[in-house]
Amino acid sequence: MLELISHLLHMLLSLFALSDQEHITPEHPLQHSIPGGVVILDAGNREQRPQATFRGKPVMLLPPNENRDQWKAVIGIPLSAKPGDHQALINGKTHTFTIKSHPYKEQRLTVKRKHVNLSEEALKRVRAEKKDMLAAFRNFEQTETWQPMAWPLKGILTSPFGLQRYFNGQKRNPHSGLDIAANTGTPIVAPSDGKVTLTGDFYFNGNTVFMDHGEGLISMFCHMDSIEVKEGDVLTAGDRLGTVGATGRVTGPHLHWTVSLNDARINPLLILSPHPGVVSKALLTSAAREDKATNGVVQTAVSAD
Q1: Computed from CA positions of residues 280, 144, 35, 129, in that sequence, does the dihedral angle turn out positive or negative?
Q2: Domain final position from 67, 99, 131
Q3: Is residue 256 part of a domain?
Q4: Among 89, 171, 172, 221, which residue's Cβ finds the most Cβ atoms within 10 Å?
């Protein structure tokens, strides 16, 4: 058993290339300079909050404290970002950093034709819903705090972040979250403190809740069976959001959990709590499943997000 755990941990370290990452601390998320990752830059030590943007959007700023001698700019990197040099603007000065390439795996799913080739009526609905969702992702509330997140439910991690997806053989956007399979009715809880900013029944995402955690950090919870919160509710980590379901475009009951930072979808693993035992079970499950992939292509999943 110990040898198996050691083997899975070794695969996990290789999978996420942790050799070039910092250890996660309560001070800031884990840094991983790849598409879908996080970059952390020094932003000066003056008392006044700096001005910091990436691609014209404000970014998370964490002030100096007993463990930080200066402000930190915490930047989410979109999955669409190309490897190479990128620039952030901090107090009017350009700060250059490098994004490395990362070989995300593929996933091929078969779904109902209506969810791939949409009717005009469905397209109209999807466009309207996308406008509301983008507004929720782009909201930015200055709090100058950050709280590591916990898993929003107990389940099996079936689809990791960043998979290049093919629906019925057609290439689609990469998987911008984590899929966690569980029985219908399994409770879903808030992974950290925040405010509910949007709820609804969406064409692709089914019953969905958005939470704003401050500083441009947004969570989205999809395919829920029931929603037990309303827009404007202020929640504490561990408060119930609702239950797992199979609404929207899915192939089985599960939670699709997206985390967004400065309107860039990032790997939720980079913001999870560092406390022992919180992440290990799901990560080991993920590593074990991915070890069964053939030629770098994941063959099975329960989600069609």
Answers
A1: positive
A2: 99
A3: yes
A4: 221
Cβ count within 10 A of residue 152: 24
Q: CB of 303 within 8 A of CB of 179?
A: yes
Q: What are the φ/ψ torsions at residue 148 (nearest 5 degrees)? A: -55, 145
Q: What pLDDT digit, counting tens, does each position of 110-134 carry?
A: 666 665 678 899 999 999 999 999 9
Question: What gap in Å lies between CA 299 and CA 148, rounded to an integer?
Answer: 32
Pair type for strands 170-171 and 164-167: antiparallel
Two tokens at 166? 């093919």
* Final residue belonging to a domain, choices 64, 81, 99: 99
Scanning the chain, the segments in alpha helix (DSSP H) are 2-16, 120-137, 280-290
Q: What is the pLDDT of residues 202-248, one digit of tens each?
A: 999 999 999 999 999 999 999 999 999 999 999 999 999 999 999 99
Low-confidence ranges of the chain (pLDDT < 50): 1-24, 275-305
- The first and second tokens of residue 44, run together, are 């000066």
Q: How many CB atoms lie within 10 A of CB 158?
A: 20
Give yes or no: residues 217 and 240 share one domain.
Answer: yes
Could you tell me if residue 304 is inside a domain?
Answer: no
User: Based on the domain organization, do 63 and 25 belong to the same domain?
Assistant: yes
Same domain as 113, residue 32: no
Domain range enclosing 256: 106-298
Residue 29 DSSP one-character state: P
Tokens of 295: 């030629």
Whole-prediction pTM = 0.81
Angle between the 2-16 and 280-290 helix axes, to the nearest 10 degrees? 80
Strand order across the 93-99 sheet: 57-58, 52-54, 84-90, 93-99
> What is the count of structural domains for the chain?
2
Q: Domain containing 69 — which CATH number?
A: 2.60.40.1590
- Burial track 79-107 (b if 16+ CB lie within 10 A, e otherwise): bebeeeebebbbeeeebeeebeebebbbb
Tell whether 262 and 117 lie within a shared domain: yes
